[in-house]
Structures are given as C-alpha cells and as structure tokens.
Amino acid sequence: MSIRKGRSVTISDVAEAAGVSRAAVSKVLRNAYGVSPGMRARVESTIEQLGYRPSVAARALRGSSYRLGLEIPYTGARFMTQIVEGAKRAVAGTPYQIILAPADGPEYDTLESLADGLVDGIIAISPLVDQAWLEGLARRVPVVMLGRHDTPAGYDTVTGDDHAGTRAVMEHLLSLGHRRIAHLTEPENVTTPGSGTPHSVRLEVYRACMTEAGLAEHIRVARRDVSGGDAVGAAAALLDLPEPPTAIFAGHDDMAVDALAAVGRTVAVAGYDNTDLAAHPLIDLTSVDQQGMEMGAQAATMLLERLKGRGEPRRFVAATRLLVRGSTSR
Amino acid sequence: MSIRKGRSVTISDVAEAAGVSRAAVSKVLRNAYGVSPGMRARVESTIEQLGYRPSVAARALRGSSYRLGLEIPYTGARFMTQIVEGAKRAVAGTPYQIILAPADGPEYDTLESLADGLVDGIIAISPLVDQAWLEGLARRVPVVMLGRHDTPAGYDTVTGDDHAGTRAVMEHLLSLGHRRIAHLTEPENVTTPGSGTPHSVRLEVYRACMTEAGLAEHIRVARRDVSGGDAVGAAAALLDLPEPPTAIFAGHDDMAVDALAAVGRTVAVAGYDNTDLAAHPLIDLTSVDQQGMEMGAQAATMLLERLKGRGEPRRFVAATRLLVRGSTSR
DNA sequence: GCATGTTTGTAGATCGGTCTTCAACGGGTG
DNA sequence: CACCCGTTGAAGACCGATCTACAAACATGC
C-alpha cells in the first residue's frame, strides 16, 4: 500500500528496490519478450509491495494511455446510457478504459481536446462537425463515429437503420388511421437535408411516408427549443394549430416524453431509441429500439480493432424493431 | 490548419518556425513572465498558422493536465446529470475541463486509475470506499467527495442536508395521515449504519421519525436488487405484505419512479433529488430538492481552490426543499 | 576448443512539454 | 564612464515511462 506523502512511486523506485534496471521493470509491465521467470517474480512482488502504478501521462507520451474517449453531446440524454454501457462492456477484460467527455459548446473543441494525447482513440457522437475535418482528426488518432450516415475513408461509423426504423413508426401510425401526423425534431442545424444526421434522415423519411400516403398537406414539423432544451413548448404549440395533429412522431424518446408532458394522452405519441423510461407503465411509450447497447459495444470493438492496426473503414448498421405500447394504442 | 499525416505539430516545430527557442514558446503558452510583445505576437501567429495544440500527456508529466476527473457510479442515474452540469458550469471560463470516469466494478479501481496522472484533481461519489484510503489518495491528488458525511482531514466534502430533507418528507407523509410508511432504499452495503452515506442517514432518520411518531411497529425497509439494478420488484413485494404500506418513501427518484411502476397510483410515493422527471405530469412525483447543480458547482469550485493551494478541508452542505406533487396528494 | 547463436538484462535516446539557471542586452545612475 | 540592474531570451535538466541497441552470459554445433 504505502502511499507516500508527496510524489508517488515511479518505475525507478521499483527498479532500485528490485535491484534491476528501469527497462527491466518496463518489460515486466508490458509483458515484453526477454524476461526470466525469476526476474519477473522479483519485480512483480516489488511492484506489489510498493503499490506502484504506472503514470498514464508518461505512458501516453511515448506509447499509449489505454484510455478511450467517448464524447457525449449532453449528459442528460437517456440514449447515452445505452451507448456507454455497451462500450464499457466491450472493453471489459482489455487493458483499456472508457472516459467520457461531455461536450459543452462546439463539438470541435471537445474532440480536439480529446485528441490532444489524452486518449488512444475516440468514439464520438458529433453529427455537426464537418466530414473533411473529421478525416483530418482521424489521421492523428483512431476515430469511430456514432450516428453518421456518411462514407468516410479514415474512420468507422456505427448507426441505426434510421430508414427502416422511421418507416416502421410511420406505417404503424398510418395503420391506426392517423392522417394528421406531426414530427417533433431537433433544431434546424441538426436536420439539414443531406447532412446525414440521424434526425435529418428521420425527418426526410417522415416526409416521404406522408407524401406516399397522400398526406403531404398534413406534414407538420415542430422543433425543440435551441436554448431551453426541452420540447414541451414545441409540442404544446402543435395543439394550438387550426387542425391539430392526432399523432406525434418524436425524433427521440426524450422529446417524446416532453411531448407527453404537453399533450398528455389526448394525442398518440411515438418515440425513438426505446430508452428504459419508455417501458414504464406511466409513460408507456411506443418507440423504435435501435439497440443502443449493441451500438456502443460495436463502436468500442471497432476502435480496438483500429488500435490493432486495421486501416480500412468499417460500418455497422444496427437493426431496428418497433415496440408498440400504450402511447399509440389507446 | 495543416493537420499532417502522422505525428502532430509539437512545440519544437513552432519554435523552429518562429525562430525562437522551445522555452520561449512555452512561456507564451503559459502566459509566463519575460515575453516581449513582439515575440508574443510572432509566436502566437505561428501557433495559429501551424494549428499547434499542446500535448496533454506531456503537460501532465511535468505540470498539469488541466483536466478534472469526475467519477460517477452509474451513468444512468438521473441525479448525475445535475452534478455534471453544475461542475461544467463551475469550470467554464477556466482552463480546466471535466472528464467523466464511469465506475464499472469496485470504485477503488476507477479512482486509482484517475489518480494515475491523468487528471489534476478528482471529484468522486464513492460512499463505499474507506476513509483512510481516501486520505491516502488525497495526499497524492486533490480530492472532493460528494455525499460523504464524514470529517476528513485531507479532502473536501459536498453533501445535501439529508437530515432535514428526510424529515421534511416524513413530516409531509405523516401530516397526510399515513401511518404505514415504508422506505425503499439501496442494498445493505450502501446503508450500513454509521457509515455516513446519504442513504444510511436517510434510513436512520426514517426510522427515527417513525419511532417518534409512535409507528415503530410499522417500519418496513425494502431494498433495490443488487444485481438487477431496479427497484420495481422490491416495491411490488411491499404490496404483498399482510398490511401493505399506504406510502413509500424512496431513497432517490430513480427508485421512486420504479416504485410508481410497481404500485401505480394506489400508494403515495415520495422520492429524493428532484430529478427533471419528477416534474413530468405523468410522473408528478413529490421529491426533495437538494440542488444537485449547486452541489456539482461547489465541488468543482472547491477543487479549483485546492489546486490553487488551499490545504484546510472545507465542507459544503446544500439546503433542501420539499416539492409536493401529485404522487402524494391525491 | 572455438565459432556461432540465443537468452537475458542494461544503457541511453526519446516522447513533448515545464521550469530553473544563466548570458546578453540596454538603460539609468553617480 | 564604470557600474548596477531589470528585461528578454536561450540552454538544458527534468518528468516517467517506452523502446532500440547492444553487451554479457550461456548453450549449442562441429
């Protein structure tokens, strides 16, 4: 144990105590070639005795930090929990650890600061950053992006099948006889057509489904407040329309829950992500499951592959499944 | 921009390009004394041109990493959001950044791995680790602990006023005429009497209030599953008792929401933390607000103070406020 | 017995910064 | 004019690891 007052135990202390060179200790640590069983035992017991732990900073400078950075846009987003849990599961048993970097402002900053030698690789959920910029980042450090429908050269992507998922919701609502179906989504900057964000795809497919059903005139798009954050106001405003919708398809469960707060059970509501709250009897929200845990696990696994040398980009698309619950069926 | 293929831009590159020494560039970076305006301008423009960003690892090795680590027991805990947001707010405008370290297994590991030179200071929510061990940790790196009612020598603490908060809930329930009030809490290891965890205090005060009201015989304590994680089953079991409770006081909102899932509106339910979900009309949960955001902000602020040299331990106790909602009033 | 090859361990450069020490310079002062 | 001193910038040690050479010790083949 022996945690000393000021500085902590370094590799030199271990080397001295064990009567070997620093390089020898390093070899033992890294399980490198050229270590006799005798020396290994001696060094390991010394490490144990002194309570030595290698400095991450020093390691990162020369080799690797054994930390993977996961950038998350907003800590409160329920879907994140699934991603994080999946990623944690995937690195369990490896020497790697997940650290989370909450993005406050522009996502560029957070990503750059992660890339500044703190982590060996990055998993990010940044639909807003430019692809060219990302390719540049990916040249410096391995990157896996979540929720980007683009075709990158230098990084991997993990997405849900937003087309299928959205179609499933819309077909469900249409089959129930709804004609005035509104879509509640993120602010404009996240849904720019062609940008390839999940929410741009969901919006696009919503529009397509409505048009195909001959309901183009009933297309209504409401957006979450940029500032305030919640979607309660936007959903409430839908009810004030001359012809209010009978169903709301929300871009994700958090907004769907906000919608429920605004419209109660008067209007059918469907969400996306199947967060744990959706199954709660008092919420009872119809939602699209896109296997967030699996997405997180895949992302981490792909990152580990990249760290082992893979260069060609890979892509994983999670299958979706519609879970019909009370919010659309009563 | 010029992000080069392999390695990134180092301080030597900047020094060479600007025609000065590495030390000079370092001075400019750190805003250190002894830099002429001319040189500063030249170096800064070179930095800009080359897109140079200092390596965190190299910095951490000698000086500081400008990263504060926030250890969180479970990513899905709603209360965490408040803490994280508060901490982020407190470091905004400083050169420091918050990184989150999710604890998977034993919290010792996560804390140690944070202390391994990755961060300049630690905010942790680890009620289970030993105080002596924490004091040892605090000698190596500045530490602020959340939710520990102990009297440490080497670290700071931030807690809510669990006594007052719990009393407020209990008095509220009692004043409504409830006599069979059950308490839904965490597994045994988190509520060991005298351990000083928030949940041990809440349990203790619950017992005291019941006894004082002459209701000792109606004390019922149910606990969340250690493995499964949720408290639905434990709450449901309460209903199967010969004399089921008419009110449930849950140790925190997440468990209260689980309780609502199990018992619906048949039993009064009160929570703790006033997470954002509590105000939702479909949940409408009476809860104790303990200003999680303020707690997070205070914790970060205290840590910054410690980094500036403060040695004496400080303690912050957040005031609580009972918010009565529908879950106990209809 | 000697050349050759294989372990095993050490020396020392290196990563990219920080920080202390010190030399050079320029301007007052008596 | 000699002296002192504050300012500016450069040199170089240092942080704690990794990793490439390389030397020493030992085994093997002929």
UniProtKB/TrEMBL annotation, chains A, B:
Pfam families: LacI (PF00356), Peripla_BP_3 (PF13377). One of its GO terms (molecular function) is DNA binding. SUPFAM superfamilies: lambda repressor-like DNA-binding domains, Periplasmic binding protein-like I. CDD domains: HTH_LacI, PBP1_LacI_sugar_binding-like. Signal peptide: none annotated. The keyword Zinc does not apply. InterPro entries: HTH_LacI, LacI/GalR-like_sensor, Lambda_DNA-bd_dom_sf, Peripla_BP_I. Keywords: DNA-binding, Transcription, Transcription regulation. Residues 9-63 form the HTH lacI-type domain. This is LacI family DNA-binding transcriptional regulator.
